[in-house]
Amino acid sequence: MNVIRPQAAPGRPLAATQGLIDVDIHPRAKSVHNYDPWLSATMRERLATYGMRPRHGFTKGPPYFKSQPLASRLDAWTPEGGTPASDPAFVASQHLDYHGVEIGLLNPLQPSGQGDQNNPFSTAMAHAVNEWQLACWVAEDARLRASIVVPYEDPEASAKEIRRRGGDRRFAQVLLMSRTSHPLGNPKYWPIFEAAQEVGLPIGIHAFGYSGWAMTNGGWPSFYIEEVSEHATSCQSLVASMVLEGVFERFPKLKVVLIECGFGWLPSVAWRLDRHFPSLRHELPHLKRLPSEQIREHIWVSTQPVEEPPRPEQLLDCMGWIGWDRILFASDYPHWDFDDPRYAIPSFIPEAKRAAIYGGNARSVYNFG
Averaged over 303-312, what is the pLDDT? Predict the structure, then answer.
């Protein structure tokens, strides 16, 4: 039958005094040579000679055209024609000031060296990118916080970088990608989780990355829309892996924030794991609690992208199951699918819950004062 419902007006803008926290801003170097001051002569030569070699078979760029150049808003290019999100002053004017962002979390994706085929080079690049964040971004704007970029395919080197940076409160999290060479719960990666728990920082896992494998079980898909949709499935796999491998049993204080993965899938994954757990738990003697209990205790999600089901109550039910205190606002600036904070959270969500999503929840999980 036909059902007629009033159309909700767009959400009202939030003022800066309401403490807007954006957990997904993507700074980009104007040139890879911006990292030179923090690279050894050997690594500078390697970068100039070979460039970066991520773990996939496409040597001249990403496998898909990402809707817009550099996957960015057309108006994010600077007035001088500079690369989107490469100028802190322009980012401040176009995003931080304009939208009243109190705290913005930097998530450098490209070029960062994460997942490079050469682990020593990846380690050197991670160190350089971390120094670059501090010198070129955090020092320029006190509203910004950095993420600890790590060479995640070398967990011991990653743990060393985490411990080196962990006491510096300018860093808010450890940054990983969702596509890795092994399922992320594999004990190979446990040194990363151990170090993060030790220094008391959350692990931020951003959709994307280079695993060395095709992004689907059947190989490389045909279209960019398939890659974007696969962001969610890559995170479904890593959530199952981390829970079932016993990561949260081993590291009970670990916090994981899933960024730009969507979140509508999380309840159903938890239900499926709970459904199988009683009959298959004989192969999981290390697990003492239901998978859903561990997911609810250790995992947070970001809003970008926000699912848009046909009925408002469906979104409310989903967010309620995840936990209203587990959802953080992310803009994804400067990318083409940027979520404007004035309208990203539907107005049918109660005001107190919207305020928590826009700032309070991030303040809690990241311990922002």
Answer: 91
What percentage of residues in the chain have a pLDDT greater than 90?
Answer: 76
**CA 50, 54, 55 angle in degrees (round to 5)?**
130
pLDDT at residue 220, rounded to an integer? 82
Give CA 40 to chain center in angstroms.
29
Q: Assign 3-class secondary structure to the chain.
A: CCCCCCCCCCCCCCCHHHCEEEEEECCCCCCHHHHHHHCCHHHHHHHHHHCCCECCCCCCCCCCCCCCHHHECHHHCCCCCCCCCCCHHHHHHHHHHHHCEEEEEECCCCCCCCCECCHHHHHHHHHHHHHHHHHHHHCCCCCEEEEEECCCCCHHHHHHHHHHHCCCCCEEEEEEECCCCCCCCCHHHHHHHHHHHHHCCCEEEECCCCCCCCCECCECCCCHHHHHHHHHHHHHHHHHHHHHCCHHHHCCCCCEEEECCCCCCHHHHHHHHHHHHHHHHHHCCCCCCCHHHHHHHHEEEECCCCCCCCCHHHHHHHHHHHCHHHEECCCCECECCCCCCCCCCCCCCCHHHHHHHHHHHHHHHCCCC
If you average pLDDT over residues 98-107, what whole number do you get? 98
If one compares 243 and 2, the residue with the highest pLDDT of the two is 243
Residue 329 has φ and ψ, to the nearest 5°, of -80, 135
311 CB neighbour count, 10 Å cutoff: 10
Dump pLDDT digits (tens) for 345-357: 999 999 999 999 9
pTM: 0.92
Confidence of residue 13 (pLDDT cuts 50, 70, 90): very low
Domain 16-365: which CATH number of 3.20.20.140, 3.90.960.10, 1.20.1250.20, 3.40.50.300 = 3.20.20.140
Instruction: Provide the sign of the torsion angle of the four alpha carbons 9, 15, 16, 20, taken in this order.
Output: negative
In this predicted structure, the answer to whether residue 329 has a pLDDT above a threshold of 50 is yes
Structure tokens at 79: 């007035």
